[in-house]
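User: Show me an example of a complex going from sequences to structure tokens.

Assistant: Sure. Here are the input components:
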Amino acid sequence: MSDTVTPAGSGPRLQILKTYKLFIGGAFPRSESGRYLQVKTAGGRFMANIARASRKDFRQAVVVARKAHEAWHKKSAFNRGQILYRMAEMLESRSSGFQAMLVEAAGYGPESAKAELDAAVDRLVWYAGWADKFHQIAGNTNPVATAHFNFSFPEAMGVVAVLSSKQCPLLGIISALAPVIVSGNACIIIVDDPAPTIAIELAEVLATSDLPGGVVNILTGLRSELFVQAGSHMDVDGVFAIGSDFEEKKKLQIEAAEAVKRTFFVDDAPPSQWLADNRQSPYWILPFVEFKTAWHPIGV
Amino acid sequence: MLPSSSRYVPPNSPTIDEVSINERVDKLGTRSIKTTAKIQGLKLCIAMMDLTTLEGSDTPGKIETLCQKARLPITTRDDVPQVAAVCVYPPMVPIAKAALAGTKIKVAAVATYFPSGQATLSERLDEVRRTVEAGADEIDMVISRGDFLQGRYDKVHDEITRTVEACGDAHLKVILETGELQTLDKVRLASDIAMDAGAHFIKTSTGKVQPAATLPVTLVMLEAIRDYYQRTGRMVGMKPAGGIRDSKLALKYLVLVKETLGDAWLSPDWFRFGASALLNDVLMQLESQRTGRYQSDRYFSLS
Amino acid sequence: MSQKPSDLLFGDLWSYAPAPESPSHAKYDKRLSHYIDGKFEPGENFFPVLNPATEEVMTEAPTADAATVDRAVRAARVAYEKYWRPMPGKERAKYLYRIARMIQEKARELAILESMNGGKPIRESRDVDVPLAAAHFAYYAGWADKLKYAFPGVDPRPIGVAGQIIPWNFPLLMAAWKIAPALATGNTVVLKPAETTPLTCWKLAEIIQEADLPPGVVNIIHGMGQTGAAMVNHPDVDKIAFTGSTDVGKIIQRAIAGTKKRLTLELGGKGANIIFEDAAIDQAVEGIVNGIWFNQGHVCCAGSRLLVEESVVDQVVMKLTHRMQTLRVGDPLDKNTDIGAINSRAQLDKITELVQAGVDEGGTKHQPVCELPGKGFFFRPTFFTGVSQSSRVSQEEIFGPVLAVLTFRTAAEAIEKANNTPYGLSAGVWTEKGSKIFAMAGALKAGVVWGNTFNKFDPGSPFGGYKESGFGREGGRHGLLPYLDLGGC
């Protein structure tokens, strides 16, 4: 939100209010359902009406993500790393703006807002560096007993649905997004936290980072309405759920069984804990890849 | 550089995966040949044998001993067949012919300046004609490996066709010398060229170069024969030579033939072993089967 | 190129005499027992165990009820806390090496039992199943004291008690695939073999007892579906590992929802074997044969769909026809048998039904002319031409010696067809062009890609599926992951 600037002598200037829509395919469409949720600032003032994504929005996002995955995973790993780095550049250049948003929308103190932005940028840089190295700690050749060359390597699984942190509106999303897409997956992130406008602001950062449209899709709305889709949609390969309670976890696992879908659960935490090193790991990349092993004879 | 008159186009031979061939050979090597199958197989081995002596030190006496063994491999039983042929150097052909008179055993001779083949074409063809005139029923020739490895497939093909002609009524076995060709791809190509050129048999080796016959090379050649037969309807025979010293190994070769080409090739008309020490080992195995006792070589006459 | 039908004769001019392996070397009880807490204990509710080649009852096995499962899990829990978790890795390693060596000592007996009970040819049990089982134990023995090197930055810990349910197609080998990594990483085990094939696991329990493994570290119980369900539902099991059908895999995945249990699944497949025109054709045909008729096609990673480049399909079909003629169907204990018995009447009925469906849908069925034994569950090797991507025989997992032959014109089409399935376990590619091998390996959605080869296994090589063929890997460094807790990250 920019400050109102009053040109001398002309009276107060009315601000343009931002419309917060969904982020699908690199564009910002409204929910096809036309529904919205009212969001207030931390201080209780009306802030915005954000889109309340429907299951049809989710379905559309999956179609878009699947298509985007095809091209995204074919890029070189180095290229994906460069794009994640650019995301860090974009976020860094908007850092002060995001810090102000964390204060206004999420009620952070100024020091914690700064700490979160620093950590968010640094974390993007950290994962950017893994893009073309993860394989080297996850894959290997296997010394089989017959005259064959044999190697195992990781491949992105495809489309991952993310149920993001309910407590940490910026770093929580980035901590889930980066490990999922760095290997070549596309994702749909369902955001339902106290300051969901920040997720859409983040989408603007993504949209200017050379990230191909559809690799990350962000749906604001009610997690309680949408989480089942994540589990049941037959063209979603994996689910990354942060902070699931028992009922949600159980339901997700049951739904996931229909397609033998992979699920990965992580506890949620308050923003200060998301800053810690144990919230970033190559072993958060690993649950969203498949290992392929290839054989070939060695002979003349 | 192809001569402008070259009309022969080398065949589009497939490449061969060596590891897969070795695996197939190993698997076929697990066939368990027992009792009646073993006895029948061993007798077939004898009937398919080209009993061979190709030494600089060969003398008429040696040849006569060999032929005597060929006619009567073992004196203590009468259910053992005679061998298919004896295989000697050209000057020994008349001696062998006389020693085998009255039998159906063929006289095969190596010619074309065996084993190196290093002579002019006309010298080689001349040797073939003389040897056939001397009475040889079968000629084993060597291909020009140097020309082959240079890619002069037209020349190799041409020399074989001319040798087929020079043989007249005699059968021609074409020795590829697989130990010098080294890769199975080349073995396959050489087999295809030899058959295109009219070979009656294709043969692995002279026995003078290591490795001589091996099971993988033989399998590749049998598969070449199968494809050629499928394409042209003409049967070609096969002969592994050198390094086949014991019955167990010989039976493995027979399994390859049976499971690649089938019944029609399981006869001396279409499959031969080039061997010498093998005969006594087969006889020993037959005696073991008959008596239930393991044998000693002192009971088996030298060839 | 169209060929006239070949006239190669694969007949009886020189026929292999019977070469039977003698069953007398294999010793087993008339009644099997559970192995719990280091002791063999008699069970209840016995069910017959058949020899599928003769349909005779070999022995009977007990059914573990919920109380027995509970005892086994408790024994495993106690053993975990008391013996196994505190034991240094290098000591655990030595137990595993012992087991490997004893399997080698008893190799012949184990191979005979596997063939008699399961139906697979003795040559396969002897040359593949038993040696690989021993090798798995030996391989994972070596990891037991090196876990901190396995995953950079992490010093992993075991999970606890693993419940493991294995199928009937490679009984001893599947037991090795499950037990070896679990033990190497410090977990304890309750394992249930399939109800039709309990014998070699029962024998393995004997070996484990002789190896003096501390009581409760490995428990082997018998039973049917309900026993498996009791294991899956037991609250004190930390991890379930299941190999079997996709349908049951999904049931298990649902059943553990909401619990602490971790899961790995190794399920069905409908592997595509792709032959390009520039393949080494004879060797590719051998690869097909290996891919679908090895182990009577009872292989989750069987190459049951053949995708042939159209320009060479006639040649391939002709060679396949010849090759089928030399396959020997018969007594599993005969050393020259290539295709043994189908594991059970139920499986035989399923194969028969699906093959009939193939015919009803208009496909052409190809089988060799050969006699089948008078009794026992036997099926001739079969392939279908004239079927399409949507035929039942091309889509459903038959789990028998039945191959569907399809064609393609371009690599892109081959990839599309190969990936057009909910399964994703294995694929084969045959071409002599190296860059094409790598391109196909990248494009095929399968956990194992065999290039110019097929059905190759090694304890060091990770095996497992994409999509509905399951998740998790068995073998290699990656095979440790399902049994480890990577810590606070």
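The lines above are the inputs; the final block is the predicted structure for all three components together. Chain A has one domain: 36-297.
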